[in-house]
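Subject: Protein record for review, amino acid sequence with backbone structure tokens
Concerning: The relation between a protein's sequence and the shape of its backbone.
How to read it: Take the token row as a discrete description of the fold.
Enclosed: The protein record, placed directly beneath this head.
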Amino acid sequence: MPDTLKAAVTLPGEEFSRVALTPAAVQLLRKLWLQHGPLMFHQSGGCCDGSSPMCYPAGDFITGEADVLLGLFDLSDGLEPKPLEFWMSREQFSYWSHTHLTVDVVPGRGSGFSVEAPEGKRFLIRSTLMDWPA
């Protein structure tokens, strides 16, 4: 997608971004950062809201060996650093390892645990197959 904000590469040995944010997602995240402070995403497996990317205040969701850091965004817009990590459960990553993920925003109510829920919007993953040389 053109005009997306690509995450910095975080997986060892890779040279391509696996995740991006649409301009609408960046705009909402900057607003949420002002309200909640530093943020993070976690994408888990499962059904219902577990299939949506969840946005939390940084550190509120504890990551560990069962998670993969897919990317690191800079939401600063040239001002003070605003790093935002994008995590995915290792099990989910095994299914989605061949895709590029773009976080977008759509109208609707997401999970009550994700910080965008009161905004009347929810984050949504759009995926496309990765096209890299074999």
Notes: Residues 23-36 form the longest helix (14 residues). The mean pLDDT is 89.
